Amino acid sequence: MKKLFVLAFAIAITFSVSAQKIKVKEANENIGGGSHNSITVTLYDISPSDAVDAFRSFIKKYDGKRSSLDGGVFSDNATIKDMGNNTIDIYGKAQGKKGDPEITFVIAFDLGGAFLNSSDHKEQYKTAEKIAKEFAINTCKEIVEQKLKDAQRKQSGFEDEQKDLEKENRSLTSDIEDYKAKIKKAEDNIVTNKSNQEKKKAEIETQKKAVSEVETKLKSIE
């Protein structure tokens, strides 16, 4: 039971430490074939390759032709209605390495001749910022939800093991009660056996006398 408590406490500590606020920033990054204005977001407890896969899945709804590019993902001629009727090229890539507690994910939007930035495209930038934050929040939530499922599955396993231990305890306790009853019965039988032995000894002594009398009678015959 002590081990279960320690493990549960460790899980709780891990989750509390991992709880972080999503950071969304504008930056100039090397993406899309050069140094371009981009939006960066922080992602937690995810590998760069998994982050790229998550972004590839996330931008599917914008109907662009997705492909791998420079270790990231590229969506050609995507349509984001809240950013206008023209198609947009979307770039995404992860910065960091596997095992890092947090990584940076870079997203860039090529509007066709110019990369999106907050100075020249204020309204479109707000939409792009929301998209980046939505991606980060959804991705981090999915990771934590999976951790929660894993933790709940492990807890369920521990609870099943606890039930098995309780069942075993009931069985052992029942065995002890059975053994006690058998011991009590054996003790009673020992008392009865001793009494019967005394009676039998008396019967044997009486019979010995009877035998002796018959032997004497036999010897007296001339």
Description of the structure:
The N terminus is likely disordered. Helix 1 runs antiparallel to helix 3. The protein contains three helices and six strands. It is α+β, with helices and mostly antiparallel strands.
Compile the SSE list and pairings.
Elements: H1 2-18, E1 24-31, E2 34-44, H2 48-58, E3 65-69, E4 72-78, E5 88-95, E6 102-110, H3 122-220
Antiparallel strand pairs: 1-2, 2-6, 3-4, 4-5, 5-6
Helix pairs in contact: 1-3
Q: Report strand %.
A: 15-25%
pLDDT averaged residue by residue: 90
Biggest sheet overview: 6 strands, antiparallel
Globally, the shape reads rod-shaped
- N-to-C CA distance: 91 Å
Number of strands: 6
Q: Uncertain runs with pLDDT below 50, 5 residues or more?
A: 1-18
Count every helix, treating DSSP H or I runs of 4 or more residues as helices. Answer: 3
**Helix and strand element order:** HEEHEEEEH
**Largest sheet: spatial strand order:** 1-2-6-5-4-3
Derived from helix and strand composition plus strand pairing, the structural class reads: alpha+beta
Q: Helix coverage percent of residues?
A: 55-70%
Over the alpha carbons, how many angstroms does the gyration radius reach? 42 Å
